[in-house]
Write a structure and sequence with these properties.
Layout: H1 4-9, H2 11-20, H3 26-66, H4 70-106, E1 126-127, H5 145-151, E2 155-156, H6 157-164, E3 170-171, H7 173-193, E4 197-198, E5 204-205, H8 207-212, E6 231-232, H9 237-242, E7 248-250, E8 256-265, E9 284-294, H10 299-316, E10 321-325, E11 337-345, E12 350-359, H11 363-368, E13 371-373, E14 381-382, E15 384-392, H12 393-403, E16 411-412, E17 426-427
Parallel strand pairs: 4-8, 7-13
Antiparallel strand pairs: 1-10, 2-3, 5-6, 8-9, 9-15, 10-11, 11-12, 12-15, 13-14, 16-17
Length: about 425
C-alpha cells in the first residue's frame, strides 16, 4: 500500500516508479490519485467548517431562547437541521471517496528499489556473480525427475490425476520419506543454526490477511477459496507475516524471524501449458518459508542474510545454483527487491527457480497496519517485512533426483540427509 502523502510530496518520483514497474499511463494514474486526494481533503475541510458552525449555532440557539428572540432561535434551529443533513451527506461522500482512493492505491504494486535492474521480463534479470555456487555436473544422458520417480515405482501422477485432476502427485516409500526428510532438515537448519522461530500456522486465512500480504484483491484467481469464505494459503508467508498485523512492536524485539513448513495451494491460473509434466508446478506442494519483521534500517542486511540462509540449504546438499536479481518487470506485486535462487537441473539442462527472497519494505506493513515504536520516541513507524523460500521442498526433491541419479536409475542420498533417512545411502526401485 502506498502513502498518499509521499505521492503528494513528489508526484514525479512516484510516476517514474510506476513506469519502472511497467505500469501503463503512470503519469495519468498519479494525476488521478492526486485529484481524488484533493477532492477528499476539500470535502474534509468543508465538513470541519460545517461541524464548527453547527456547534456554534447550537450554542446560539440556547442564548436566543433565553433572551426571548424566538424568530432568531427558529432560524438557527433550521440552520442546524440543514447542517446536520449536509454533514451526514458529506460523511457518506467521504467514506466513498476514501474507499475509492484506498482501493486504487491498493491495486498498485510496490515501487522497485533504486538498485533493481530495469526490464520487462526474466530476460533482464541479472546474475549476482558473487553468489554463484558450484559447477553443474556433466550428465549428457540425464533423465528428468518424473521419468526417474516413475521408473522407481515411487512417483505416481496417473493415480493422483484420477482422484484430484492434473498437477497432483502421489509420492510413495522412500520418496515420501525423502520429502519428509527435506522438511525436517530445512527446519532444523533454520531454527538451530540461523535463529528462526518455528511456527505451525493456520492454513486458511480471511480476506484481510490475504489483502495484507498483497494476494487480494488483484490475485484472487491464483488462490483457492473455501465455502466458509477462507482462502487456502498459497505460501506460509501469508499467516507468518500477518502474525504482527495491527500490532505495535518494541524496537528491541526486532528483527523477528519465523519459519514454517506447510503445504501450499495455488490454482496456477496463468500457467496453462507450462510445466505440465512433473512436480515443478503443482496445485499443492510443501515448502519451508522464512519471514522476517525488521526496522527500515535492518531490512537490507536482513534481505542478504535471508538469502544466505536459503542458499546454505543448497550448499549443504551440494547442489549447484546461482542467484539472480529480478528486474522491475519480473518482481512480485509486493516486493521492492527480489533475489531468485535457481538450482541446476541436469534433466532439463538449465537452472530453475527454487527460492525467491524478497524485501517488501513497508508496503505490506501499511496494508496490515503493523508498526513499531523506536527507542525514546512517541511516534510509531511501519515495520519492514521480508519473505523467502527456505526452500520449496518439492523442487528440492526434484533437484536431488536429477543431480544424484545413477546410470541404473537409483538415486544417491546426499550426505546431509542420511541421518533423516535412517542411514540409507541410496533410493532404489520399489520391489
Amino acid at each position: 500500500m502506498h502513502d498518499i502523502r509521499i505521492i503528494r510530496d513528489d508526484p514525479a518520483a512516484f510516476a517514474a516508479g510506476l513506469a519502472r514497474r511497467g505500469i501503463a499511463g503512470a503519469d495519468r494514474i498519479t494525476e488521478e490519485l492526486l485529484s481524488r486526494d484533493k477532492e477528499l481533503r476539500a470535502l474534509l475541510t468543508r465538513l470541519q467548517d460545517a461541524q464548527a458552525r453547527r456547534n456554534e449555532a447550537s450554542k446560539l440557539i440556547g442564548r436566543a431562547k433565553a433572551e426571548k428572540r424566538d424568530s432568531e432561535a427558529q432560524a438557527l434551529m433550521a440552520e442546524v437541521a440543514g447542517l446536520k443533513d449536509a454533514i451526514q451527506t458529506g460523511e457518506e461522500s467521504e467514506r466513498v471517496l476514501q474507499e475509492e482512493l484506498r482501493s486504487r492505491l491498493a491495486s498498485l504494486p510496490n515501487l522497485a528499489a533504486p538498485d533493481v535492474p530495469d526490464g520487462a521480463d526474466e530476460a533482464a534479470n541479472v546474475e549476482v556473480a558473487a553468489r554463484h555456487w558450484g559447477t553443474p555436473p556433466r550428465a549428457n544422458s540425464a533423465k528428468e525427475h518424473f521419468d526417474l520417480g516413475e521408473a522407481l515405482g515411487l512417483m505416481d501422477f496417473e493415480r493422483a490425476t484420477r482422484i484430484s485432476g492434473s498437477r497432483f502427485v502421489f509420492l510413495k516409500g522412500a520418496l515420501a520419506r525423502l520429502e519428509r526428510a527435506l522438511g525436517n532438515f530445512m527446519l532444523d537448519l533454520h531454527t538451530e543454526q540461523f535463529g528462526y522461530t518455528e511456527i505451525s500456522p493456520p492454513l486458511m486465512v480471511r480476506d484481510e490477511a490475504a489483502f495484507g500480504t498483497g494476494q487480494l484483491p488483484k490475485f484472487a484467481e491464483d488462490l483457492f477459496h473455501t465455502t466458509t469464505g477462507h482462502w487456502l494459503v498459497p505460501t506460509a508467508e501469508v499467516p507468518l507475516t500477518n502474525y504482527v498485523r495491527e500490532e505495535i512492536l518494541d524496537e528491541a524485539q526486532l528483527p523477528l524471524r519465523f519459519t514454517a513448513w506447510t503445504p501450499c495451494f495455488r490454482s496456477e491460473a496463468g500457467a496453462a501449458g507450462r510445466d505440465t509434466r512433473g512436480m515443478i508446478r503443482m496445485h499443492q506442494f510443501p515448502k519451508v518459508e522464512l519471514v522476517s519483521i525488521a526496522t527500515p534500517e535492518q531490512s537490507e542486511a536482513e534481505h542478504e542474510r535471508m538469502t544466505d540462509c536459503a542458499q546454505d540449504v543448497l550448499k549443504r546438499l551440494d547442489l549447484a545454483h546461482r542467484v539472480v536479481t529480478l528486474c522491475t518487470g519480473d518482481m512480485g506485486f509486493s516486493a521492492k527487491k527480489t533475489y531468485d535462487i535457481e538450482v541446476w537441473l541436469p534433466g532439463q539442462n538449465r537452472y530453475r527457480e527454487i527460492s525467491s527472497c524478497s524485501n517488501c519494505g513497508d508496503f505490506q506493513a501499511r496494508r496490515m497496519n503493523a508498526r513499531y515504536r523506536p527507542k525514546a520516541e512517541k511516534a510509531t513507524r511501519f515495520v519492514h517485512t521480508l519473505n523467502g523460500s527456505g526452500l520449496a521442498i518439492g523442487r528440492t526433491l526434484v533437484a536431488i533426483l536429477e543431480n544424484y541419479q545413477e546410470p541404473d536409475g537409483s538415486i544417491r542420498i546426499p550426505e546431509a540427509l542420511m541421518p533423516y533417512m535412517g542411514g540409507a545411502k541410496k533410493i532404489e526401485k520399489a520391489t
